[in-house]
Fold this sequence. Notes:
The protein contains 13 helices and 21 strands.
Amino acid sequence: xxxxGITIAAVRKELSDALTxxxxxKIAQPEPDELLLTIKNxxxxxxxxxxxxxxxxxxxxxxxxxxxxxxxxxxxMLLRKHIQNGRILSITQPGMERILNFRIEHLDEMGDLxxxxxxxxxxxxxxxxxxxxxxxxxxxxxxxxxxxxxxxxEVLPGKDYFIPHTQDKVNPLEADRALxxxxxxxxxQPCFKALYTSFTGLSPAIAHEICHxxxxxxxxxTAALEEDGRQALWExxxxxxxxIRSGQFHPCIVYExxxxxxxxxxxxxxxxxxxxxxxKDYASVSALLEDYYAEKNTITRIRQxxxxxxxxxxxxxxxxxxxxxxxxxxxxxTEKRDKYRVYGELLNTYGYGAEPGAKSLTCPNYYTxxxxxxxxxxxxxxxxxxxxxxxxxxxxKRTFEALSELTLETKAExxxxxxxxxxxxxxxxxxxxxxxxxxxxxxxxxxxxxxGRAKKVKITSVPFHYISSDGYDIYVGKNxxxxxxxxxxxxxGGDWWFHAKGIPGSHVVxxxxxxxxxxxxxxxxxxxxxxxxxGRGCEKVEVDYxxxxxxxxxxxxxxxxxxxxxxxxxxxxSDISGLKQVE
Length: 583
């Protein structure tokens, strides 16, 4: 699933067709490593996302807008000063490198016509957005790279811009048959690997596709190929390069089995190595990238924003699990308390028979009717030994009584923290984190900024809302506070309530409106309960369900914790692909 040189070639063509000659109308920087350009061209308006995120570098046209910070970052302000209202002269890709170069014409402070370059390098953790003048001198960049960070190239204002040559690869668009044969068949290695390690811009997926089109086995060694096989591989490679030169791109996503099916690969060319029924074709590579990365980008961003909360929850959970394990061990140690009580009672009854200095006493145990041997301290009398055993018994009894309450409290805290961790896993927006942060503050794991006088933040996050296959409204809590509100304030007594059995998960409520639910709706709600729980991805999850009137909240219980004694259960998968979500 690489954003390879061929995908960038398809993006370049699409951007060039849509944006060349257009004017840069707005420039925003919604994320520290991302730009959103609004461009007007041919009576149309386009939004261009340029992201230099280390985990998700991207460039594509989008229909979605993003909220920008109130105060624009310095790099954004610099671009506004130089190229806002500038005209895009060209969009190029050097060779098959993962680089796009936007040449933009604008008027400077003196009214003279000048040209600048906005360059985005889509190279994983080395991704960057660099702003240069017409002489390839760096004016600024979204990420500054000093010599201490990279010995290959500095990216700093005033430095000359150049493309780092880090790999000995050839531009595939310039390769003839002789060069192809020389590079691919110079050693013995799998055919697909020989392709993508020899030529710029080829991902392993595209290399597999070339081998498939040649009718060969991608894993077959190049040394094992006969002349016919080599010729077929060259012809497949040459044909694909011709598609790229002529701009004949056919973007597609292919899916692998699962519930729901998940994307396995995407490419800017048709992947014929996958069955047609597992392939979804797109007319636009931007539409493909927007669909493919929308969820992944959201998850990546939200995980970055929730990293501090995850760390707090993880550390607290680890401490409480260790604490609980220690308490359970101590509880086991108290199991012998009754033995010491019996020793003391028998010594008070039969201690007169113990010889002075004896190390043990065997006497009848009137509780079992059998003889029992009691260890003795030879330096003490039988009465003193009995007193010692009673002291041990009373100490262990007090420990047992204290631990009986403490272990319940610690177990409840572990379950509470696990439920918060599960809430962090399903958070999709920054607003979803607000209530989780509030819960951690209320539980004493976080301090509110500004102290006790600070106002509580405004809550805008709401539960997920789905429509069942029969048209019933189903609601899913995103965190413990929403679970409580959903179950005890929103739901009516006759509504149905669902929850994954014995594992952290969301409360799911189906609004019945006084009607009897169809079986399909029960299954839809159960699938949602399974999906929004720690059981997601399992083949089957056990889900409890009951009418809401049977669900109770014990006094003093943690947020999200409930009890119920009348319920049904079903085993269900977590495939919710057939359910419609209401935004």
